Amino acid sequence: MTQVRYQTVDVDGFELFYREAGDPQRPTLLLLHGFPSSGHMFRDLIPLLADRFHLVAPDLPGFGLSEIKPRDAFTYTFDALARVITRFTEVIGLDTYALYVFDYGAPTGFRVAMAHPERVTAIVSQNGNAYEEGLSEGWNPIQRYWRDPSEPNREALRELLTPTSIRWQYEHGVPDTALVSPDGSALDAWYIQRPEVDEIQLDLFGDYASNVALYPAFQTYFREHRPKLLAIWGRNDPFFLPAGAEAFRRDLPDAQVRFLDTGHFTLETHAAPIAQAIAGFLND
């Protein structure tokens, strides 16, 4: 039986919640979740890898069970998320680690890697984008807000925060939706509906433009530091297209790229094959 520890740590005045499992003497895999989720998304993956790796899954600031600081006390940007996660790794004593990045975890994790490339042993990108060709038309309403950050365009994005929209993100592109537990999307919806979290999420929608602007820098990091990379994606993702996974090979010719017949939240249906792929990749 895998023992998972559920803990909080003070990161320079920010209370960060995280899950931890496995022997700390083994290689560490830092798991970074995306929108609108939390470390809970790794609930099926962690037990499958904890006998071989040390796994750490923090909830990003403003997400899950991590502290929700008021917006006038903390600016919710991807730069800020990355700074907190970088300090989190230092506070809990992670000297080196492989990164598992998904959705928002990708631009957060890539910033962490660029700041300290010597600490990152490998990258697993599960629907974690770093190329413009990976962006689908599903980004159109958010891109409209980037071009014109007006109140009407901001308000139009609230639909993405509803329980119905969140559930759609879990089910879209999944051949058999009966395999997708209702618990993950229900928990995400509950977290999103807490006071001020909606405004935090709208702020991050707006700031996502900074990630696209950094794509060339991410790609330079790949070329210069040559991290081992496995891109394992749900090919039916409505937000990040397969072309985004294939593009990693442009900068990392040895990157491994695999597709699974499912959607955005690939772990909901394919935790076992992803765990098997990660174990083979990191032990190679």
* Beta fraction: 15-25%
CATH architecture: 3-Layer(aba) Sandwich
**Shape label:** globular
Our count of domains comes out at 1
Give me the oligomer status.
single chain
Q: Ends: how far apart?
A: 26 Å
Q: Provide the gyration radius in Å.
A: 17 Å
Number-wise, the strands total 8
Low-confidence stretches: none
CATH topology (fold) name: Rossmann fold
CATH homology group: Alpha/Beta hydrolase fold, catalytic domain
Order of helices and strands: EEEHEHEHEHHHHHEHHEH
| Helical coverage, percent range | 40-55%
Task: Give your account of this protein's structure.
This protein has 284 residues and is of the alpha/beta class. It has one domain (4-137, 211-282): 3-Layer(aba) Sandwich (Rossmann fold). The chain is 42% helix and 17% strand. The chain contains eleven helices and eight strands. Strands 1-2-4-3-5-6-7-8 form an eight-stranded mixed beta sheet, with helices on both faces. Strand 1 and strand 2 form a beta hairpin. Helix 2 crosses helix 3, helix 4 crosses helix 8 and helix 6 (163-171) packs antiparallel against helix 7 (182-192). The longest helix is centred in the C-terminal third of the chain and has 29 residues, at 197-225. The radius of gyration is 17 Å and the shape is globular. The protein starts with a strand and ends with a helix. The model has no long low-confidence stretch (mean pLDDT 97).
Give a short summary of the structure.
By secondary structure, the protein is α/β, with parallel strands linked by helices.
